[in-house]
Amino acid sequence: AQTVTQSQPEMSVQEAETVTLSCTYDTSESDYYLFWYKQPPSRQMILVIRQEAYKQQNATENRFSVNFQKAAKSFSLKISDSQLGDAAMYFCAYRGRLRETSGSRLTFGEGTQLTVNP
Amino acid sequence: NAGVTQTPKFQVLKTGQSMTLQCAQDMNHNSMYWYRQDPGMGLRLIYYSASEGTTDKGEVPNGYNVSRLNKREFSLRLESAAPSQTSVYFCASSERQGNTEAFFGQGTRLTVV
Predict the structure, then answer these.
(1) Are A92 and B19 in contact (CB under 8 A)?
(2) What is the pLDDT of residue A103?
(3) Cβ proximity of B105 and B50 under 8 Å
(4) How far apart are CA B14 and CA A46, in angstroms?
(5) Nearest C-alpha of chain A: how many angstroms from B43?
(6) Site from B36, B38, B43, B93 to mutate, A interface, most A CB atoms within 10 angstroms
(7) How far apart are CA A109 and CA A73, in angstroms?
(8) Residue A73 and residue A24: Cα distance in Å, rounded?
(9) Are B48 and B56 contacting, i.e. CB atoms less than 8 angstroms apart?
(10) Which of A38, A44, A106, A110 best probes binding to B when mutated, by most B CB atoms within 10 angstroms?
(11) What band does A52 get if pLDDT is binned at 50, 70 and 90?
């Protein structure tokens, strides 16, 4: 079974600085998808960014970018110019390739609580 | 534009009681999921339904049952609640394509005393 590990339970960053959140995963598949979700105190789950494993280019969304290292099975999230509104729990997630007989499970890591200091 | 709607938002149960968490989505998604969120453990998959008429166990299915009533609705039942089932429960839905976003409900905070 696929597993996702986030080894940093908590991180903090100064406003306007850059922070990187780590994520590693274990899989025997070669084709899969990776996601970062943000959960603010409201408990709402918000998609931040996604990456297809077959794409070598790292995904970017405004201030958010990833460093996808397929061989190392690593998928880190970089937040540039951190803002107070970035404070939240961040979850890394993995989904395997769609198969005919089953849907594609979405597996999450333990989460990293990000604090942004003014 | 409701998205994924879960009910109830809060619930307190006594040990041994039963209850059903309801989930409905209006995005015509094929796949639906039930997760529980506990501190330090992230979101753990309880059950999922790839499409109407199918359900599969996730990582932590013991003590739970599910029903995919139709394409819109996916319910989670606790037959005999235990304190270990105190958690925040999330329902989610998505298309079956691998890179598509999963949409989540607002969560249900369940306390079993």
Answers:
(1) no
(2) 56
(3) no
(4) 33
(5) 6
(6) B43
(7) 14
(8) 6
(9) yes
(10) A106
(11) very high
pLDDT: which is higher, A109 or A101: A109
Half-sphere exposure in the Cβ direction for A9 (13 Å, CA): 3
User: What pLDDT is stored for residue A99 in this prediction?
Assistant: 62
Q: Can you tell me the mean pLDDT for A42-50?
A: 94
Phi and psi, residue A80, nearest 5°: -100, 155
Q: What is the SS3 assignment for B85?
A: helix
pLDDT(A101) > 70: no
For B49-88, the pLDDT digits (tens) are 988 888 999 999 999 999 998 999 999 999 999 999 999 9
Find, among A97, A44, A53, A60, the residue nearest to B37 by Cα. Answer: A44
Least confident of A40-49, A94-103, B41-50: A94-103
Record: contact B98-A95, CB cut-off 8 A: yes
d(CA B32, CA A29): 23
- B42: tokens are 């992230």
Residue among B40, B22, B28, B12 nearest B93 (CA) = B28
Place of tokens 């397929």: A70
Q: What pLDDT is stored for residue A90 in this prediction? A: 98
Tell me whether strands B87-94 and B31-38 are parallel, antiparallel or unpaired. Answer: antiparallel
Q: Nearest by CB to A91, which of B31, B43, B58?
A: B43
Who contacts B16 (Cβ-Cβ below 8 Å, separation ≥6)?
Answer: B80, B81
